[in-house]
């Protein structure tokens, strides 16, 4: 059976890894914009073929499909989904693991996602306002005195979120002046004809986590929880990135999220899948994820949705799946998810991303550097390596400007962190490498924070005030 994989990052490498380790002996073909060394090795070992081209071009994808004639398509990144690449596979009569263009809008447009949450009364929804111009958004920031989060109105690679919390009245005006200047930068991250550029939401606070749910159009299957570490630098400071690491486990939970909250989150995602079908008339096939926060307002609260596996969350989840991952993907794409009996490794996973100096602020500075690693030493320390923004050029590995590698350890949190500390020593480059060593080491702090929030939202639940905010209207905007 032939599988055509679309994408080139660490997420696609770990998907290829899962497919290659299937009992089905798939032949894996890939289309990427550059040659990922990890994907390349799997393609060669499975007797497939590697194609280079524009992964967002429906014409290029159609051309490769007709050359390969695959039995199944698998799409990793979000951008090809936004461009309708999943629909090309369907037009060619090939089942595909990946949301349609219309359904992927749940990630592409934060505004559409918020609108359908309010339209269908989905729990965990935040109140919001949208702005078509930077000037109107900046004016609102100056005039409104409450705590807010300012975001690009559409998908921007996890970047661009700014938060204003008015905790000290005498600083409010200064904060608003500073934030109104930031609106211009945020507005530049998303510009689509006829759509809002900026969304401003009520601010919430709490531990973040992600639930990925597989959907074959009729049946859903929830995977274990994961948590992404967005900020570039140690202890959660610095600019936001696509993710500097991730954790998952033990079991299907995280230490600070309980079974009831898992079930509430799963219910939110299932209601969202139903709402998407009502809006688009197309059944959701692929993976959808709720990027969540545990808050005193709602308990499980939606920050945003993914229409694909998160990255680096995929590296925390897929290696823990003990069921046949290939069958899991195949049955999702072909409408047979009821056949799956999901088994997972109960041990936690810690993922640490490694990026060249310059990431995420300067792709130019972070590009064009040689990188090499001692894979044997890394394997001796029981770590996995997934290649991200690294191109195989001749016999050299060259950085492309984003996260270059993801190191993975499946062990209790303290043991995993120590293993990753050792493995990081076997990665070398012609530039300085940045990474976070605190990933998986702040569990106790998050447990304590979650307990405080849990007490608050349960009180709201008992009094019938879940989701109620004083200065935001029940229809999603300001009074």
Automatic annotation (TrEMBL):
GO MF annotation terms: ATP binding; metal ion binding; phosphoribosylamine-glycine ligase activity
Record EC number: 6.3.4.13
Boundaries of every ATP-grasp domain copy: 114-334
Coiled coil regions, renumbered to chain: none
Cited PROSITE patterns: ATP_GRASP
InterPro entries attached to this UniProt entry: ATP-grasp, ATP_grasp_subdomain_1, PreATP-grasp_dom_sf, PRibGlycinamid_synth_ATP-grasp, PRibGlycinamide_synth, PRibGlycinamide_synth_C-dom, PRibGlycinamide_synth_C_sf, PRibGlycinamide_synth_N
Domain of life from the UniProt record: Archaea
Xref: SMART domains: GARS_A, GARS_C
Signal peptide: none
Keywords annotated in UniProt: ATP-binding, Ligase, Nucleotide-binding, Purine biosynthesis
PANTHER family linked to this entry: PHOSPHORIBOSYLAMINE--GLYCINE LIGASE, PHOSPHORIBOSYLAMINE--GLYCINE LIGASE, CHLOROPLASTIC
Protein name: phosphoribosylamine--glycine ligase
High-level lineage: Archaea, Thermoproteota, Thermoprotei, Sulfolobales, Sulfolobaceae
């Amino acid at each position: 059976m032939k599988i055509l994989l679309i994408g080139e990052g660490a997420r696609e490498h770990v998907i290829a890894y899962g497919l290659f380790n299937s009992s089905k002996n798939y032949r894996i073909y890939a289309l990427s914009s550059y040659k990922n060394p990890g994907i390349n090795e799997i393609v060669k070992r499975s007797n497939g073929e590697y194609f280079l081209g524009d992964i967002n071009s429906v014409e290029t994808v159609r051309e490769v499909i007709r050359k390969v004639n695959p039995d199944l398509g698998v799409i990793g990144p979000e951008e090809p989904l936004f461009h309708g690449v999943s629909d090309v596979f369907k037009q060619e009569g090939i089942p595909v693991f990946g949301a349609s263009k219309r359904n992927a809008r749940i990630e592409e447009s934060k505004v559409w996602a918020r609108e359908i949450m309010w339209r269908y009364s989905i729990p965990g929804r935040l109140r919001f306002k949208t702005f078509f111009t930077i000037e109107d958004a900046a004016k609102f920031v100056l005039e409104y005195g409450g705590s807010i989060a300012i975001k690009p109105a559409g998908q921007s690679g996890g970047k661009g979120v700014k938060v204003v919390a008015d905790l000290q009245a005498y600083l409010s005006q200064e904060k608003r002046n500073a934030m109104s200047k930031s609106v211009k930068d945020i507005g530049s991250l998303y510009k689509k004809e006829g759509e809002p550029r900026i969304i401003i939401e009520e601010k919430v606070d709490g531990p973040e986590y992600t639930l990925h749910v597989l959907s074959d159009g009729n049946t859903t299957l929830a995977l274990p929880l994961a948590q992404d570490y967005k900020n570039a630098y140690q202890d959660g400071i610095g600019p936001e990135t696509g993710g500097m690491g991730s954790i998952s486990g033990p079991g299907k939970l995280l230490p600070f999220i309980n079974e009831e909250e898992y079930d509430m989150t799963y219910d939110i995602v299932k209601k969202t899948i139903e709402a998407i079908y009502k809006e688009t008339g197309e059944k959701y096939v692929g993976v959808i994820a709720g990027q969540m926060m545990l808050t005193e307002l709602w308990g499980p609260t939606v920050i945003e949705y993914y229409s694909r596996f998160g990255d680096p969350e995929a590296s925390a989840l897929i290696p823990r799946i003990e069921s046949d991952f290939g069958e899991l993907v195949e049955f999702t794409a072909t409408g047979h998810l009821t056949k799956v009996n999901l088994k997972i490794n109960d041990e936690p996973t810690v993922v640490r991303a490694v990026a060249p100096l310059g990431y995420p602020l300067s792709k130019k500075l972070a590009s064009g550097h040689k990188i090499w690693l001692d894979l044997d030493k890394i394997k001796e320390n029981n770590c996995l390596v997934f290649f991200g923004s690294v191109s195989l050029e001749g016999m050299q590995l060259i950085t492309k400007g984003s996260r270059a590698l993801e190191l993975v350890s499946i062990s209790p949190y303290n043991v995993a962190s120590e293993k990753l500390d050792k493995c990081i020593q076997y990665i070398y480059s012609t530039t300085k490498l940045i990474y976070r060593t605190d990933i998986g080491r702040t569990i106790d702090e998050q447990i304590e924070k979650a307990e405080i929030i849990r007490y608050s939202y349960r009180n709201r639940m008992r009094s019938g005030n879940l989701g109620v905010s004083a200065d935001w209207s029940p229809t999603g905007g300001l009074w």
